[in-house]
Design a protein that fits this description.
Structural class: mainly alpha
Number of strands: 6
Number of helices: 10
Shape: elongated
Order of helices and strands: EHHEEHHHEHHEEHHH
Largest sheet: 3 strands, antiparallel
Strand content: 5-15%
Strand order of the largest sheet: 1-3-2
Amino acid sequence: MAEDAEHPESRPEPAPTGAPREYRMEELARLAGITVRTLRFYRERKLLPPPRREGRIAWYDDHHLARLRTIAALLERGHTLNGIAELAEAFDHGRDVADLLGVGTPTEEEPVRLTPEELAARFEGEVTPENLAAAMELGYIGTDGDEIVHISRSLLDVSSALVREGIPLAEVLTAATRVREHAEALAALFSDVILRHAPEDDLHRLRPLARSVVEAELSLALDRRLQKGGRRGERD
């Protein structure tokens, strides 16, 4: 194809320091460790976003290179090309990190940046377009270029630990939706109590007390559940 032919005289001048790198098809394929034929195939399958065109010449950038490396990593993990295409579409149309952090950076939770392959490694075999959509709907993850941002390291660690214990990610996310509803109600309850007796500024100062109450009550509730389960076992 003429648009993808590599001609020495048409090589780009070195990019200024700090400017985005751009690549002809042959150079991009070499850097990604694949053939030009494979690159064309990925492009036809819409696994890659369209290149920038300058006349009949297609220019690719580091975003395309990162996507190709992600494809390779996901293929190694057993994902099919169809599945990768669906994931790529989910990533490309997912909520932006600016939307995710629209209410401001969390004051106590630590956001985490991951590549798509790192996310796939965290949730082996569970990263599907459906689960991505559910996590985005919850506001757990957003996209920032080639990276994924999870709103909370604590929630990320707990979710991946539950999946490692054999609980499907879909069920973890469904439970998270219900937990969110209860957490919102508890936050409203605590805020109402504080605001009836203290200035609004005290909400931030006293929030550790609210967290301690919820943790203690949840611990006691789990004790009651375990005791009931033990008594049922005795009757059986």
